[in-house]
Amino acid sequence: MSVIGTSVTRKEAPNKVTGRARYTDDVNVPGTWHAVMVPSQQAHARIMAINTESAQNVAGVKAVLTGCDVAILTGDVIEDRPPLAHEKVRYWGEPVALVVAHDEASARRAAGLIEVRYQPLKVVNSIQEALAANAPLIHERISEYQVATPPAYPKRASNLADEANVVKGDVDMVWEQSAIRVQVRVKLPQVDHAAMEPRVAKAEILADGRVLIHSNTQAPYEVQKLLAKYFHLDPGQIIVQVPLIGGAFGGKATVHLEILAYLASKAVGGHAVKIANTREADLASSPVGMGLEADIGLAATKDGRLMAAKMRYFMDIGAYADSAPRIARAIAAQCTGPYKIEHLHADVYCVYTNHTYTTAFRGFGHMPMTFAIERAMDELARTLHIDPLELRERNALAPGDTTPTQARLTRSNLGDLPLAIDHMRTLIHWNGPTPRVVDDRHIRATGVAAFWKTSSSPPNAISGAIVTMNGDGSVNLSIGAVEFGAASKTTAAQILAEQLRIPLERVFIREEVNTHVDPEHWKTVASLSTYMVGRAVLDAANDLIRQLKDLAATVLRCSADDLDYGNEKLFVRDDPSIQLKFSDLALGYKYQEGDSIGGQLMGRGHFMIRHLNLLDQETGQGRPGPAWTVGVQAVEVEYDRMTHQYQILTAASVIDAGRVINPAAAVGQVMGGMNMGLGVASREVIHYDAQGQFLSNQFRTYRLMRVGEQPQEYRVEFVETPQVDSPFGARPLGEHGVLAIGAALANALSSAAEVPLNTLPLTPEAIWQARRRRLHYDTV
Amino acid sequence: MRSLTGPQAMTLTINGDARQVVVYPGETLLYTLRGDALGLTGAKPGCENGDCGACTVLIEQMPVKSCMVLTVEVEGSDITTVEGLQHAPIQQAFIDHGAFQCGYCTSGFLMVGHALSQQPDHDQGRLVEWLRSNICRCTSYQEITDAVRAVCSEIES
Amino acid sequence: MIPFDLFYYRPDTVDEALQAYGDLVRQHRHPAFYAGGTEILTRSRVQDVHIDAVIDLKAIPSLRIHRDDGQTLQLGAALRLTEVADLNLWPLLTATADRIADYTARRQITLGGNLLSVLPYREAVLPFLLMDSAKVELATQHGLQTRRFADVWDTALNLNPGEFLVSLRVDSQEARNLTFRSHKMTRLDWIDYPLVTIALAQPASGRVRAAFSGWNSYPFHSSTVDQILSDVSRSPQARAADAVSNMPMPAVSDIHGSAEYRQFVTQYTLSDMLTELEES
After folding, report:
1. Cα–Cα distance for residue pair A641/A629, rounded to 1 Å
2. Position C3 confidence tier, pLDDT thresholds 50, 70, 90
3. Taking CB atoms and an 8 Å cutoff, what residues of chain B touch C37?
4. Residue C93, SS3?
5. What is the spatial distance between Cα A485 and Cα A249, in angstroms, rounded to a whole number?
6. Of C46, C188, C264, the CB nearest to A763
7. H or E element at residue C22
8. Binding partners of C (≥3 Cβ pairs within 8 A)
9. Which domains does chain C have, with CATH numbers?
10. Mean pLDDT, 10 residues at a time, over chain A (780 residues)?
11. Is B6 near chain C, with CB under 8 Å?
12. Omega into A761 within 30° of 0, i.e. cis?
């Protein structure tokens, strides 16, 4: 009857195919007013004046707010971001004013009438421009900023929000002694999460002081905490409710619109106010995913053993830091990829630019980081004439090794990359990287790349679960993880059903999260729900079983130790005919005489991450996450040597899943992840013009993959090396499909086009340009 | 000549029912459907620019992006939304093939897939051409095309 | 949603439409003729235009006309692009128009709407640029007027305020007796604005004619380019290369592609199309 390892339909599926699934903007309090933001039309400028008079005069307008009305700074790690631009704007699209009106049309009309007078400043339009001597400072008062969540080290009088370093071994000596060295420089643009549901937040302040927030956030408890902090409220006053979310990918973990919604409601006496992003605002004004430039140097022996690495990563974090310092540490801690490199120096810089600010993006920095290291690995394989899969297998980290930040690896916390690589060979009929000729124009080539990732979560991340019983013996499960498509609710229900030995249908789980009643879960990020929520659910299940046994023991006049359970019954182990149904106990036990004992049974469970540290400032030493997920991915392309156009024939992944809880859902997560990773690598890019104007603010200019452009075939396999402290051994899996697939595509195309392709996106033009540059280089 | 200014009381035929609504001439069909009076929130705003297809409904059985049509234009037309699908094979096929994760684009894809399955001709080329009107960010698209193809071939046989 | 108090008129005749426009202007409104609506809705939403009255032309029968009487092929301006393709009265137009936007969008976009779009691409223009016999039927304050397409077109169809497009006409024989190719090249995606869309047409006896969209800010046809492409004594590759260096204006650089890359793509696409055209 095991529901673990069984493909079950997600709980909310029937609602999602009937239009009955409710998302944040689907249910509104009648009479909700609308707030509309006025985006900056400059990327870097001083605000000289804002004329709101004509906007105020539009019928239906209730309030107009500007940065002068809101004297706070916000931010996850560094408090550097005013909710509404104050004194200056730092990116095109930054909210400079907020209009609240009875209806959306009036608010939009009024927003269009607000005149902002700017004095343009020199725009910092790239990492190079930000780091140049005498670069204009984006944050003049950087040294006055509060670091809300250490560590982060903003550098005074610079555009560096933070820097993270890893030092291990004696890199300088080993570097010089190594026989082979390769250098790769990669450049990746900012990209957008492009969740199909734009961000939306609603706020209402009741007369009794309670603040009701509805939002499609991945971090409802963070919204609660930060609003309480910024506006001096008691956390208990703030109730955050999150229904189903229409895709998130990290982009909904920032507390952003919730602050504006609260300010808007407060400005109109607490009336219910909604702020819903247009797609244009969702792309340009709300945070995007970082850009990255990196220099990777690898030193190896002639037989392909990695000896040393020197790396520098520059993140284009845009105008505000948000979670960039955390991402920088995640990159630093995993910078080698899943390979053993004992002598290492890596510096990761968070660089402010006048681009849209950035936040977590599926993979938390590991996707661009993996691109860098995996391009370097392929260049090393090419230089050494070693099979690229072989090179990766030979250098794979093993139990007993330590990570770049000197965390000790075990079979449980690492998994088995060599086994995954071995499966990949069979899965794609691996024949090496040499392209195969199809006809006089077309050739086929396969690229591979490997990844690893851990959670990079704070050392005190918590989760909880509450299970209550219904009179018929079925159970209700309450958790703090939101549902944005990763089936986290269904997985939690599966874990509970398995532990209680009941059918999945007997577990009822709410689609939404309400911070007032659901136990806190840190944030629904980092693919950690199965692990953290799962552990809390197991704890709650065990608590409930204990209560069932205790009550049953009393009724059956035996010791709780004599009892076992199954089929929604408790029974005496050596005589199962002595038994009670769950339903006999769920709401208390009623004796024949009518007197009763017990009460509603409810299990409570909690979980706290253990043994993690903040990384040391000098060396990076510390443990960044409870365990890693490793995997290898491959892409086969057919490439036209004349036009440089290509088709993706196959995309494949082999991932160490620890234990697959829901096979169909797991395969779907990985396939979808591969598609997203391939979209990012092949076509996605945010363009800015010379003045820093955001040019990609619609799906006409920010192109996403569509039907017919996906790989012709997907292949997904799992190996299962249990993570012993995780429910049923399961490892995180939600983000991982994206991590190395872009690097695999670049490796395939680099082989096919016979030119290193280290810049994204990999459009035919990019390949054409790279080949032209190389031709020029060869002839000079 | 029909001339409409200011709020208009009109009758729309939605999912087989005649529904009385008051609409402003500047309202898109998406806005009207999702409004308090009808509450048909299955059609989603994803871009309101005709690019993503999350708001797709059927007008006279054919797919239309409801953000790209004024409600006053479809007075008298037969409108079908996802709420009007009554155990259509496409719905179970989407569940069976795992053709959605977050579910936000699902209504739009369902409507395109359903309309296509009702067409006399739904070869592979047409299937791709219709489905590429919509965007999904979660799945790999293979699940969606598999689900639609399964329903189309079932109807054929 | 159009965030203005919109007036919506749906006239049944051309005269009513003209009358409505005049009335609205006199009332100091900002009217626009409306058919598919995609451009007006998208631009109004982001307040790129201020339109507070639309005159929906779709109910006027003469804008929905489609016929080929053997002499004249006539297509109403309010036909949807999918209708133009399904009717397939003019296969060259079908081939070009069927690559605009996406399928569902083409169920909204009208032929006239595409021809009069503010975007640079307007691919449906290309076939008309290739036909000497192409004519437009306009509704003007002086009644219906039929003019040569070439006389109304420079970089756009030049209509005066208050005028609208009723139908398009080409000579049946000219439209039918030609071999053609139409090809849209994008940065990468099937659904995207073109780096370049090329329509080639060759009458049974006559020169190759070529029209281009995406190369610059408006669709164009150039007799110099035609002349180069028609010189069958040279290889398609040589002609394509020569054509690209003799375009009447430079290629644009934008987020879809650089000017140099547009030249590269245009060259190999032209070459491939010439080869196909001459082999067929």
Report:
1. 37
2. confident
3. 68-70, 73
4. helix
5. 10
6. C188
7. helix C14-26
8. A, B
9. 7-60 (3.30.43), 62-171 (3.30.465.10), 179-279 (3.30.390.50)
10. 91 97 95 97 98 97 97 96 98 98 95 97 98 97 97 97 98 96 98 98 98 98 98 97 98 97 98 98 98 98 97 98 98 98 98 98 98 98 97 98 98 98 98 95 98 94 98 98 96 98 97 97 93 98 98 97 98 97 98 95 97 93 96 98 98 98 97 98 98 98 98 98 97 97 98 97 98 69
11. yes
12. yes
Please give the backbone phi and psi of residue C52, each rounded to the nearest 5 degrees, phi first. -120, 10
* Contact status of B60 with chain C (Cβ, < 8 Å): no
DSSP 8-state symbol, A737: G
Alpha-carbon gap, residue A446 to A430, rounded angstroms? 8
- Tokens describing residue A671: 């396939």
Nearest to C185 by CA among C251, C268, C279, C280: C268
β-bridge partners, A492? none
CA distance A181 to chain C (A): 34
Rounded to 10 deg, the angle between the B124-131 and B106-117 helix axes is 150
Length of chain C: 280
Residue C144 and residue B89 in contact, taking contact as beta carbons nearer than 8 Å:
no
First-to-last CA distance in chain B?
48
User: Amino acid letter at A640?
Assistant: D
Evaluate whether B78 touches C61 at the Cβ level (below 8 Å).
no
The verdict on C40 touching B (C-beta cutoff 8 Å) is no
Chain A residues touching C4 at Cβ < 8 A = 105, 109
Residue A776's contacts (CB-CB under 8 Å, 6 or more residues apart) are none
CB-nearest partner of A671 from B47, B134, B140:
B140
Q: Which residues of C touch B26 (CB under 8 A)?
A: 1-6, 8, 44
Interface ipTM > 0.90: yes
User: Across the interface, which of B85, B134, B139 has its CB nearest the CB of A672?
Assistant: B139
pTM above 0.95, yes or no: yes
Evaluate whether A479 touches A496 at the Cβ level (below 8 Å).
Answer: no
- Cβ separation of B103 and A484 shorter than 8 Å? no
Contact C52/A at CB under 8 A:
no
- Cβ-Cβ contacts under 8 Å for A176 (sequence gap 6 or more): none
Please choose, from the candidates A720, A691, A765, A731, the residue with its C-alpha nearest in 3D space to the C-alpha of residue A40. Answer: A691
**Domains of chain A as residue ranges with CATH:** 13-123+195-248+252-284 (3.90.1170.50), 288-457+613-779 (3.30.365.10), 462-608 (3.30.365.10)
Structural contact between residues A530 and A665, judged by C-beta atoms closer than 8 angstroms: no
Q: Does B137 touch chain C (CB under 8 A)?
A: no
Domains along chain B with CATH numbers: 8-81 (3.10.20.30), 85-156 (1.10.150.120)
3-class secondary structure for A487-556? CHHHHHHHHHHHHHCCCHHHEEECCCEECCCCCCCCCCCCCCHHHHHHHHHHHHHHHHHHHHHHHHHHHH
Does C102 contact B6 at a Cβ distance shorter than 8 Å? Answer: no
Q: Do C20 and B3 touch (CB under 8 A)?
A: yes
Q: What is the reported pLDDT for C237?
A: 97
CA A675/CA A382 separation, integer angstroms = 27
Q: In chain B, count H helices and then E strands.
A: 5, 6
Type and span of the H or E element at A165: strand A160-168
Say which of C46, C255, C257 has its CB closest to residue A701: C255
Residue A521's pLDDT is 97
Q: Which residues of B touch C4 (CB under 8 A)?
A: 26
Q: Do A683 and C187 touch (CB under 8 A)?
A: yes
How far does C29 lie from chain B, in Å, by closest CA?
Answer: 12
Structure letter (DSSP) for residue C206: S
Residue A549's nearest CA partner among A535, A559, A540 is A559
CB-closest option in A19, A28, A194 to B83: A19
